[in-house]
Write a structure and sequence with these properties.
Length: 133
């Protein structure tokens, strides 16, 4: 059996005379930005304070979104000979990186000792290993 909800309220009819309690200015107050028709504050609007999007620093490029695939120099020494040029395609052919990794940046972490030198392609970066105490 359906029952009427006691807490349901009717829609407020505004601007229907001063006796209604919401007449004349229709409950908006007098003058000002909020009383005007068509007024809508955009999201993130702060009254007088600097908006949040202006406080945050500008981001250059998409450096936050860059993903790196790290490879140890030991694995490179196992799969490549001395003086070989190391490219993304060569790493993919040897099975060191997958097709999906080919889209990301590649970083080679150099070990403490290197038995030989090798040529890295321009899009492959390298860094020294961090010493752990």
């Amino acid at each position: 059996m359906l029952k009427i909800n006691k807490h349901s309220t009717k829609r407020k009819r505004v601007g229907r005379g001063t006796a209604s309690g919401n007449g004349k200015t229709s409950g908006r107050g007098t003058k000002g930005q909020n009383s005007r028709p068509g007024h809508k504050r955009h999201s993130g609007f702060t009254t007088g304070a600097t908006p949040l999007h202006m406080k945050l620093p500008k981001l250059e490029g998409n450096s936050i979104l860059k993903k790196y695939v790290t490879i140890n120099s030991d694995t490179i020494e196992k799969h490549f000979q001395e003086k070989d040029k190391i490219t993304k395609q060569a790493l993919q052919d040897k099975g060191i990186i997958s097709n999906q990794d080919n889209k990301h940046f590649i970083k080679v972490v150099l070990g403490k000792k290197q038995s030989y030198s090798y040529q890295l392609d321009s899009d492959i970066k390298h860094s020294k290993s961090i010493k752990t105490a």
